[in-house]
Write a structure and sequence with these properties.
Helices cover 47% and strands 22% of the residues. By secondary structure, it is α+β, with helices and mostly antiparallel strands.
């Protein structure tokens, strides 16, 4: 089945034979549709030439990717109404790399189809024609065969959606874990900042205490130095006084000796 990137005008040529013969469809009251898993779009602008139907499936009509079927309804008066379907005529894909025709040119999106389904043959149902085409089974099998492309597509979409849901659950779970980890990281960072602030405060208090200790030590040293200086000053004063007293005593003794007088000097305290 041809795979074409969505968003391209696609030229479709559908040859519909009647019982293997090329019987003209011109003049019949035909309606043409393109069906996806989600909607059925009517193609109003198509050309019938002999037994070939040609039309353009416009890019503007392409709303989703996936398989496309082409449906032809024959409501010609005087004949039983018939509807035929070219299942899985082509598939629209999301990316050019998914296409399966490497030789396609930019403007060469042409789909050629052939169907060997009877239109308007009296006395034969679509089920009979299905059997005539080589299929086997019951009417239920025929209905299942008609629905299989859409069922397969719906199943694939359901599987893809289930996978998307599971992946979304995993993403949400991972996001919750990431958010939890981020909250824990921010809490740890706040604790670290608080500890750092406390450390700085403690360090500032220690530095202040050290400054106070050093200032007290300087005051103590100054007091000791002053006391020492006072002692030294008093000692020097006392020594000076004693020296003067001794000098006076010696001077008096010499003067007295010179006059041949004997003077006795008694030590007087103070």
């Amino acid at each position: 089945m041809r795979r074409i990137r969505i968003g391209n005008d696609i030229q479709v040529s559908w040859e519909v034979k009647t019982g293997g013969e090329s019987i003209s469809l011109e003049g019949r009251q035909l309606k043409l549709y393109v069906r996806s898993a989600y909607q059925k779009q009517e193609i109003k602008d198509f050309v019938v030439e002999d037994c070939t139907i040609s039309f353009t499936y416009l890019a503007s009509m392409q709303r989703s990717t996936g398989a496309r079927a082409i449906i032809l309804n024959d409501a010609t008066k005087g004949s039983p109404e018939k509807t035929i379907c070219a299942d899985q005529a082509f598939t629209l894909v999301a990316h050019s790399c998914e296409e399966n025709d490497d030789d396609v040119d930019f403007e060469d999106y042409l789909i050629s189809l052939q169907s060997n389904i009877l239109i308007g043959r009296p006395g034969m149902s679509a089920y009979d024609l299905w059997l005539q085409d080589g299929h086997t089974g019951t009417v239920e099998d025929y209905y299942a065969w008609l629905q299989k492309p859409a069922s397969d597509f719906v199943a694939s979409v359901s599987a893809a959606e289930q996978q998307r849901v599971e992946e979304e659950k995993e993403r949400v779970k991972a996001e919750v874990e990431r958010t939890k980890t981020e909250i824990e990281r921010e809490a740890n960072e706040l604790t670290r900042k608080n500890n750092e602030t406390e450390r700085k405060n403690t360090e500032a208090q220690r530095a202040k205490s050290e400054n106070n200790r050093e200032a007290a030590e300087r005051r103590r040293e100054a007091d000791v130095a002053k006391l020492k200086q006072d002692v030294e000053d008093k000692t020097s004063t006392a020594i000076a006084r004693c020296t003067k007293a001794a000098e006076r005593a010696e001077s008096l003794s010499v003067a007295v000796d010179g006059t041949d007088l004997v003077i006795t000097i008694n030590d007087v305290e103070g």
